[in-house]
Write a structure and sequence with these properties.
Chain lengths: 411, 393
Amino acid sequence: MATLTVPVEEKKKVQEQEALITGAEAIAIACKLANVDVVTAYPIRPYDTVMQYISQLVADGEMDCEYIVAEGEHSQFEIVKHASVCGARVFCGSSGVGWMYAMEALTVSPALRVPMVCMVGNRALDDPGAFGVEHNDALAVRDLGWLLTWVDSAQEALDTALIAYRLAEDSRIMVPLAISCDGAFLTHSQALVQIPTAEQVKKFLPPYNRGDLLMHPDNVISIAPQVNEDWVMEIRRQNYAVTEITCDVIREVYAEFEKNFGRKYGNPFFEEYMTEDAEVVLLGMGTMSTPVKVAIRKLREQGKKVGFVRLRWFRPFPGPEIAKCLERFKAVGVIDRDFSFGSPNLSGVVATELRSAMYTGAATRPPVLGFICGLGGREVTVPDVEEMTDIVFQAANGKAQPLTQWIGLRS
Amino acid sequence: MGQLFAVEIIYRGVFQKTLAKNITRGIVLAAHNEGKLGISFGRYGDAPERNGIPAKSFAIVANDEQTLEAGMAQYEPKQVDLTVVVDDTLTKGAESWAWYGLQPVHHALKAGATLAVVSQDDAPALLKNIHRREEPYKLGVIKGAASFSGMWVYKDDHTDVRVLGVIAKVLPGLFSLKSVEQYINEKLKNPLKVTSVRGAYERFTAVDVKPGQGNPEEPFKFTLPGWEKMRGGVSVTGQPQGGPYADPTTGEKGGFRPHRNELFKKYSTRTMRPVINFKTCTKCTLCWLNCPDASFDVTPDGTYDTNMESCCGCGVCEAVCPVNDCISMVNETEFSDNKSQWEAFKKDQEAYLKWLETTIQKAEPIEKRAHGFRYRGQYQEEVPKALEIAAKA
């Protein structure tokens, strides 16, 4: 389940309204507050809850936008791509194989500098047909120039959606951004959320301005021509230039968010929980933070000094920052709610990326153990976390451990 | 760690989806009036909901964030302080369409806690269906007809707030009657609902159920295989074809009984079942051909008998049967076992036909049944009737 609201300064709180809403509903409300112009929809669980809520807001007269139900995900993402280059602020989203069906449109959007904001309701890829959370769907675009973030509460979902528009539409960035929300635990669970006022959002979020990339009769341009080897590398280098500065812009936008809304997220890239005096840490993304934190409190009572790092931004991957953070621990256990079959050490995606970041960024390199856990929506239980912590402590004490282990598996 | 409250609502998929959501939302918001924190969610594995499939919705409430987080750290509460069943035909147990086997309705109930059932029956009648258990508990009836709506409509007959009134009485530590009234006044803005919530609060009583009291049936369950023992390629074996079976009186073999999945029975989906007059059956085959679940056995006599573990009570057989009163759908609360009707008929024809005569009198005509709405204006007709039943309680 999702974690709770982050602290709010008292003076800000009075302006905001409180509501009992799901993570999907929180994102729908953020779209309303961001005054989104074009929304495209095609149903697939668990993403579909957000399209239902937006259609309800439109039907109730609370939100004014073009709401287009496409005939499939490919068109769904193509339509917002085109609307976005014509100057519309857009919202879109999908889950699991729906996201994969849109892959061609997902692939072209970063090069065209389309700042579409999407929600991925994380879902296991078919087959077998399953609705539960797995992170491989969103991770499929990790090499393509998308910005990828994972949130763990409805409040963070709402706030991150507002941050997402400001960040993606920044003239230095202008690339698509996906907010990953774990299916069920976040998309379908109602929690108490503070909803900012329209005035606050207006102050924080400037109008969308594509500059000379706007497709308009007054600005005649042609987008996405056919090119050959004499152009492609330079085009790729332009996207690479975005990745070089994204971390700095993220820091700026979070600082602006804090100033406007009063809610503090601290380090934007990852949240640290009980790490100050920790000997070992676990690391993961999304709503697994809830059972992990509960387990850590229990383990701390037994005198086991373990902490948790929840990664918020996977693209850009905060390599130097996270390597600096982790180098001081005796061992690190990465909980992957995903798989990367045939990868180095046969670990999950996050463990593999993290080892790469540690190799270059950390002064000392503690063992990084990979755990595959909670696939297909299976619960990451408190006993699972205790088991993983135990393995990490053994590695910290010099007892060699397999680099990848499956936890909570029936054998 | 402070006190953690968990409440579970067991409901019929689609027909009671909005009702269940309104109740669990109401719990969190009423408790929030006392400064408590909470979340409300449906069991994800039950969705997407199908008509009538048993489903669950939960509310978890605590005084502080850490206690609430401990409650949220699991997929669904393993132990609840109160279970509310919003349709009494669900008392036979809930088999969600995920793979849990059949769960008794008190599956997650803490020892000594209360099970509340929306029903027009009394506790002893409900105990014929509610499975036995080792821990004692309390059973109370929220008097009323099960409130059924559809995908796009909601029958606002006050069942939601009457359940909240019962919760205020059973779990005063979760929220008081005053807090529910505040929630209704501020959020629902319906003074009539305040009257309903007070009535339910005052009337609700519960009886003690002792260990071993109730339905002796052993709910079916199974063990899931490990990854090494499973078939590969995301494949499952098909069912064998089936074949003739024996007449219980003569022992002679005949007819055809298909082989059925042992792990997936569908009877907890049923709110009504077909009862069959084997005497007037013309063997026309229409029920057998049209049954969407292949629930009919061809008896050695050539008539058709519904397998009660496979039938989900849709009523298509009754609709297609050309003979008057040969197949009649009767409310599931009238039955407490899943035995073959044809075997009973073969063993004692006279007794069976007599039983049939009294049983089909309880069958309501199709347009009167409470599954969704069949004609314009039905909603308006049903609300006063439901309120009347509730007022009489």
